[in-house]
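Q: What does the assembled structure look like for these inputs?
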Amino acid sequence: MIFLLDFNPIKPDFGLFFWSLLTFLIFWIVMAKFAFRPIANALKKRAAHIQDALDASKKARQEMEKLKSENEKLLEEARKERATILQEAKEQSNSIINEARDKAKSEANKIVENAKLEIEKEKLTAIKAVKQNVGLIAVDLTEKLLGKQLDSKEEQVKFVQAQIDKLHLN
Amino acid sequence: MLKKILSIILLSMFVFGLNAQEHGSHESPNGDESHDSHHAFDPAESAFHHISNHNVYSIGPWNIPLPCILYAPEEGWSMFMSGVFEPSAEHHGTGHKAYKKYVLDKGIVKHVADPSFPSEEVEIEDVVTREEMVDGKKKDVSYVKYNGKEYKLDSKSTMDGGVFGGGITSFYDFSITKNVAGMMLVALFLMWVFIRVARTYKEREGKAPKGIQNFLEPLFLFIQDEVTKPFLGDKWEKYNPFLMTLFFFILGLNLFGQIPFFGGSNITGNLAVTMVLAIVTFFVVNLNGNKNYWEHVLWMPGVPAWVKTILTPVEIMSMFIKPMTLMLRLFANIVAGHIVIAIFIGLIFVFGKSGQLVGASYGTSIVSMLLAMFMMSLEILVAFVQAYVFTILTASYLSAATEEAHH
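A:
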């Protein structure tokens, strides 16, 4: 066991103890003051900074979401309104067209009716005229056929006319 | 990534290779007279030597001199560089010279108490170690040979009170030893890095971390958020710097000891260092102990009086046992890792018969290197785990000491 003589790790000596204590204490003081406290503070500050940034971004996102949903709502409303407007316009146009059609129909009917009345009037006038002329023509024809003038031509005409009027020309 | 891993493997192979060569060439006659070049290699002795604290910093074949600050009650203080001993590379830093009655034995300063030994600088012949019976116990004693006469060498005073073979001797060593130098280097390096990082935090306020910040911030936040805050609650800011100091100091020293070919300093694997950490922790815990804590230690509330008489001694004992376990746990883990790696490397010389069987050496070196590499990666994990364990246990003791009464 010769080696045990110089195996000093298990034999704490005064020098190493003294220097270790001194080094450790100086290290502790220096590191605490100039390294560990400033670093811990910087980390704390940074953590707070990051937390703030995260919170702010979350808030912004929420606001944006709110805006977005609002926009969507507005858009939906606009869409609905457009649909109703379109619907109304369609209905209105339909009613206008129908009205116009009805009006035109009645107008046309009226025109036709009028025309019919006119025609009837004309026809009556024409028949009247024909009837008048037919008397004369008949007397003329009869004169020609008899080769002589009938006495009292006017009487004859009157007589024929009366006969003709009795006729129903239709 | 793969390229990086490969280059790290190659580098460590190279480094181990160099270390192996160094060992092969100077595994030396260890005190015995026969200067046989093929002296049997003792892996345990080699391992124990390499994890010990020395008064020279040996990197490869170089012995970097360190300041010696020595105090002998009879002679007073002496200060000089360990270079005056002219340590030899072949004898693991055994000095060729004695200076002011001090001798360097395998990198460690020893003192000649004999008043007849010259106190000036003298050439010495050899340093030998023998097993002797001292006070009825077997003990190793080393002697310096000078002028054909042997003088007994005293090892430095230690605080173990003879339990581990130390005790108060004829001198005290306050030198900047290898461990002290390494510790100062690590402390300065960490201070430099952390102060720079702290400055970066100030300059880059509100920005993402950059560079070394990226490496340290997860560690820092891990200790802060997983150790300090859960244990200490709203008092975390008061104790955070102390726990951080413990963690990074221990981690830095653990990792420093794992740098291959850089002395392999076994700093946190030295009882003196872990004792300092444990004692500081003991004081921080007990000086911050509140009324509630002392009440629990001295007169446990809520238990019958006869139980209290048993509990109080137990609690007082546990007050001291807690830091003691901190001290021993860190020490044992780090020392074990260093010994295992040293022994794996030592296998090369065991199987190679200290260089006689070159083929066997090469063969074993491949296996040894793989084993040592595995151990080293494990040791890096251990470095982190032990630093973490020390810190979290300290945090739990602190939490127990500062907890407010809640019943």
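The CA atoms of residues 256 and 265 of chain B lie 7 Å apart.
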